[in-house]
Amino acid sequence: MAKFDASKTVVLITGANIGLGYAAARLLVQDNPKYHVIIGSRSLERGQAALEKLQDSVSNLHQNQLDVVEIDITKDDSITAAAAAIEKRYGRLDVLVNNAAIALSSDSGKWKSEELRLEYVTNCIGPAITTQTFVPLLRKSKDPRIIFVTSGMGSLRIASVNDNPYYFVQAAGYRSTKSALNMIMVETNKWLQGEGMKVWAVCPGWCATTFGNEDAEAKLKMGAKTPEQGATAITEVIEGKRDADVGKVTHNDEPGGTRAW
């Protein structure tokens, strides 16, 4: 690997080999040479494939803008190993995007305990432990940022009042993990704001990805955002455009939008 340019902003995006994470990585590196994006992937092979796909498809990619690290956020030893690898390569982390997530559980009253446990470990516990593990590296940044990728389906307000389409969506397990993640964001912000760290939850909206084993093309035809449109909600926070909304759930359905959590 070429020598790292220490002037670049080092960004780790978990679950960045596909979907929103991949789209966010692409947006960052195709438009601005200041970002060095680390693709976090549970599989090193899939992460490397995503890196090579970006290298082949982004025409104006600058040298040494991409890297990949293996990280399974359901396993503490994998998180620790990823942090050690990034510390060895870069000495710090500027932006952590907790993006990796899953959706498994079915309708209310039809839950399976093993699926609920895995959803909570992946969507809530994993991001919490990942953040805690990377805080020492974030403390070495001049402008540390932490993003938790959430969902409007985790909003208690939306789930309780039938004036929103998300009110009618089943998947109580997934929804509750995102509610819990929002609280993790709030508590993380309270914990770290005195150190100058900025923390948000970001709601990218309904996007045409294969998340939850759904048909991306069918979702697009039904009016879903493209992955790039959804990922813009993430990149605008990284770029400093939502600094007035630290500690909140942001979205880009409208300029400067925030969501009740």
UniProtKB/TrEMBL annotation:
Alphabetized InterPro entries for the sequence: Fungal_SecMetab_SDRs, NAD(P)-bd_dom_sf, SDR_fam
UniProt-listed SUPFAM superfamilies: NAD(P)-binding Rossmann-fold domains
Family: Belongs to the short-chain dehydrogenases/reductases (SDR) family.
Pfam families hit by this protein: adh_short
GO molecular function, one term: oxidoreductase activity
A GO CC term assigned to this protein in UniProt: cytoplasm
Protein's name in the database: NAD(P)-binding protein
Biological process, per Gene Ontology: secondary metabolic process
Record-linked PANTHER family: CHAIN DEHYDROGENASE, PUTATIVE (AFU_ORTHOLOGUE AFUA_5G01530)-RELATED, SHORT-CHAIN DEHYDROGENASE/REDUCTASE
